[in-house]
Specification:
8 helices, mainly alpha
Length: about 200
């Protein structure tokens, strides 16, 4: 609920029973949440190595192993988000023309990534299982989940593009909140998948 006070046209916001004169900050945080959710959640729904890993552990070794794999994937996301945010902080120091070129390359790569990920799914009616990938599941699920996430080059590129879109509309200080939200969504998604 927003109410405009008569003092200098400043907007006040009702939060937890107190008047808040910082509704601009609250609006920025909510906007970051919406931006990250609208861009990250659809990408999580596209099946990839992490989905295959989590479901394989769930089918072959049970929920506990699948939850450990999900924890490894989430831990890997923490590492990838941190690396991405450090890269974004370095890129912010570059001239605007270079930043625009990097964004365009990132956007083109995301479109390519989406097309290459969805094309095999549309062509094949039944997924084929790879015997070699099933044999590699003898390692600890947490370690395999972590290594799967941090060796995925698509993950770091996606996070860099995601955070470059966030920084375009929001202050740099909110990037770490965006990173935390992305990790939270990743953890919740893979934990939910492991519990199925």
């Amino acid at each position: 609920i927003y109410l405009v006070s008569s003092r200098a046209g400043r907007a006040d916001h009702w939060i937890t029973g107190k008047w808040c004169n910082r509704c601009g900050v609250v609006d920025e945080i909510i906007s970051v949440l919406v931006t990250v959710a609208s861009l990250h959640l659809p990408v999580l729904l596209i099946p990839g190595a992490d989905v295959v890993l989590t479901t394989s552990y769930g089918v072959l070794r049970g929920r506990a192993a699948a939850l450990l794999a999900a924890a490894g994937i989430t831990l890997g996301s923490v590492i990838m988000v941190a690396i991405s945010l450090l890269c974004i902080n370095a890129v912010v120091q570059l001239p605007l023309a270079v930043i625009t070129i990097v964004k365009l390359i990132g956007a083109i790569y995301l479109v390519y990534l989406m097309m290459t990920t969805l094309a095999p799914l549309l062509r094949e009616k039944s997924p084929k299982t790879d015997q070699a990938s099933n044999e590699s599941l003898v390692n600890h699920p947490l370690t395999v989940g972590l290594l799967t996430e941090i060796t995925n080059p698509k993950a770091i590129i996606f996070f860099i593009v995601l955070f470059s879109l966030v920084i375009e509309r929001h202050p740099v200080s909110l990037l770490w909140i965006a990173g935390g939200v992305a990790v939270l969504f990743t953890g919740l998604y893979y934990t939910g998948l492991a519990l199925l």
